[in-house]
Amino acid sequence: ASITNGxxxxxxxxxxxxxxxxxxxxIYSYVPSxxxxxxxxxxxxxxxxxSSIAMSNTINLTVDPNVAPTVxxxxxxxxxxxxxxxxxxxxxxxxxxTYQWQVNGVNVGTNTSTYTYTPNDSDILVCNITVSGxxxxxxxxxxxxxxxYTTMGITQLSNNSAIHIYPNPxxxxxxxxxxxxxxTYRILNVMGAAMQEGKLHVxxxxxxxEEYPAGMYLLELTNSKGERQVKRVVRE
Length: 236
Hints:
Elements: E1 11-16, E2 19-21, E3 37-43, E4 53-55, E5 59-60, E6 71-74, E7 78-79, E8 85-91, E9 96-103, E10 106-108, E11 114-117, E12 123-132, E13 141-150, E14 164-166, E15 173-179, E16 183-188, E17 194-200, E18 203-208, E19 215-222, E20 228-235
Parallel strand pairs: 7-13
Antiparallel strand pairs: 1-2, 1-3, 3-4, 3-5, 6-8, 8-11, 9-10, 9-12, 12-13, 14-15, 15-18, 16-17, 16-19, 19-20
């Protein structure tokens, strides 16, 4: 608090939200909360002061919440072999963001929120960010990754041409009938992250997806030879 005509022994009374706080000092330090109002009341012992009490202006505080940085990659995860794709990283912070893209663990691209290249089958694309500058952050980095599949890398299952997947779209149970040999399956989201995995047996099978949010998913089937097939499925 800066004062005039406080006299030789001024008395300071700080208030936060109309409650007395602090000590008799022209400085008050504390950890504010959002919406706090701070004032200082001066008691002057100066001779000839027109009033012995003076109240400061009110400081109304806005405290930004601490934010944990996040980054999300958007772009196609099932693509035509040899096609060039652009992937975009979206962040939730407003500070200075540094981007580092990686493909299969190798640094690629430049310090930008987009990366364009021609993916290979099963590429793992990662975007790492670090954050600095204005803002209150819980940590200063974040990462996100997706797996990209190409049509050439998806070998059709040689002994399972009769597989029937229905209903599609569905809102609860996905039927996989006509399986000719035991195999594994995975349900992937559009970012390539595995949501569920398990085994399919000869004949008819059911995969429960009612707990997933509505949207598009990928059903990946793999047989004992490593041949696999990917089918788009929709959860209503």
